[in-house]
Amino acid sequence: QKNICLTGWRIKVVDGNTAICVEGKRKDMKDLSWHSNAIVERIAHNQVRTSSGSVYVLQGNIDSASMRKEGFPYRFVKRFTYGFSKKWKEYVEEFLEARRR
């Protein structure tokens, strides 16, 4: 299974605030807008695996402007500026918890 490459990527909340996915434009599909299944694992700062087993390669920095427009807190977006850190799960948990309140 080949990796799926996304540019202009950002994080989206899925499954009623229980998980996140990534969304962006797919290089191999003429920049079609695309979003992944729920993210379950970080492989590298710019590579994540989803619940379906697909690996997404995130090119460039996060699209922070569009995330801010969608109401994501600045602190959360900043933590993902350069991709997924080792503590990404903690950050996501904390963020989703706050949204569920």
UniProtKB/TrEMBL annotation:
Domain SANTA as annotated: residue spans: 4-91
Highest taxon of the lineage: Eukaryota
GO cellular component: chromosome, centromeric region
Protein name per Swiss-Prot or TrEMBL: Mis18-binding protein 1
Organism name: Tauraco erythrolophus
